[in-house]
Design goal:
InterPro entries: Aldose_1/G6P_1-epimerase, Gal_mutarotase_sf_dom, GH-type_carb-bd, LacX. GO terms for molecular function: carbohydrate binding; isomerase activity. It holds the Pfam family Aldose_epim. This is Aldose 1-epimerase family protein. The protein has 291 residues and is mainly β. It has a single domain, classed as Beta-galactosidase, Chain A, domain 5 (Distorted Sandwich). 1% of the residues lie in helices and 44% in strands. The protein is built from one helix and 24 strands. The strands form six sheets. Strands 7-8-9-10-24-20-19-14-17 form a nine-stranded antiparallel β-sheet, with no helix packed on it. Strands 4, 12, 13, 18, 21 and 22 form a six-stranded antiparallel β-sheet that branches. Strand 15 and strand 16 form a beta hairpin. The protein is globular, with a radius of gyration of 19 Å. The protein starts with a strand and ends with a strand.
């Protein structure tokens, strides 16, 4: 595993070749770190890419062409070594290609390219999925960046808030203890677009917002200052902190895909919120982090 450093004089970023994972995003002047440290006592990851699955298959398996394929939560890309394909001081691209091992759990040939680009005080995270198979493929992709909250990772999150780009209310789908979607929903009223962060907010695990209810989410400190803003076009996103742990981070997760519903009994092609590509096709999406 290697690391790649980006620096535009305003912010710096460090990306690991393993999982093409963003490990650090700092203010170049003060050195303030905005990403979660990855302490395994709470959660060992920092910003994994979720591919080719977001969430869980029902019973951890799906079927395609009459054959079953087993995959763990959030797919395998986060646990694979990526290859650097290009880079400058402010932009880098890494790639993962299908191989014999990936085909054991995912039957398609693909090329996944991840890019990171610094612009002013914003880090753009770019996804490119290429269908290198001779047939149509199906996949999901998502981000899972974890931000230090509180900023110094000390104390609790009382007094912090989530800033939506909508007046609300917003509706979340409840994910059950089995990691599958339920028919239950919960509605949250916002005040000036804000939702206070209480530890109990994550008692039922991630807040999952479907149907493009918002396309920007900021983390606000007790003084009312927004210190991180995530912007995205994704149709779904999750907000997560480990339930019951008072963990000093919050994840803002843009998703093109979601876990199966607990009543789902279909095939890979029939999954909700899935994406498809014809042979030779290319899927491009991105999100950004501004500090």
């Amino acid at each position: 595993m290697g690391y790649f450093e980006l620096d535009n004089g305003k912010i710096t970023a460090r990306i690991a070749s393993f999982g093409a994972e963003l490990q650090s995003l700092k203010d170049a002047g003060s050195g303030r770190e905005y990403m979660w440290s990855g302490d395994p006592a709470y959660w060992k990851r920092v910003s994994p890419v979720l591919f080719p699955l977001v969430g869980n298959y029902k019973n951890k398996k799906t079927s395609f062409g009459g054959q079953e394929y087993v995959m763990s939560q959030h797919g395998f890309a986060r646990d694979r070594e990526f290859t650097r394909i290009s880079g400058t001081d402010t932009e880098i691209w890494l790639a993962l290609d299908s191989d014999e091992e990936t085909r054991k759990s995912y039957p398609f040939d693909f090329r996944l390219e991840l890019g990171y680009r610094l612009k002013d005080r914003t880090l753009e995270v770019l996804w490119r999925v290429k269908n290198t198979d001779s047939r149509k493929i199906w996949f999901s992709i998502g981000g899972h960046p974890a931000f230090a909250c509180p900023l110094n990772e000390e104390g609790n999150k009382d007094g912090y808030a989530l800033q939506f780009d909508t007046a609300g209310p917003v509706e979340t789908r409840i994910i059950g203890p089995d990691g599958l979607a339920t028919d239950e929903h919960e509605e949250y009223l916002l005040e000036d677009g804000r939702l206070p962060v209480k530890e109990a907010l994550f008692d039922r695990d991630a807040l999952v917002l479907e149907g493009g209810q918002a396309h920007s989410l900021g983390l606000v400190d007790p003084k009312g200052n927004t210190f991180v803003t995530v912007r995205f076009d994704a149709p779904l996103f999750g907000i997560w902190s480990p339930p019951g742990k008072n963990a000093p981070f919050i994840c803002v997760e843009p998703w093109y895909g979601r876990c199966d519903h607990r009543d789902f009994n279909g095939t890979l092609e029939e999954r909700e919120w899935s994406n498809s590509l014809e042979a030779g096709g290319e899927f491009n999406a991105s999100y950004s982090i501004s500090v």
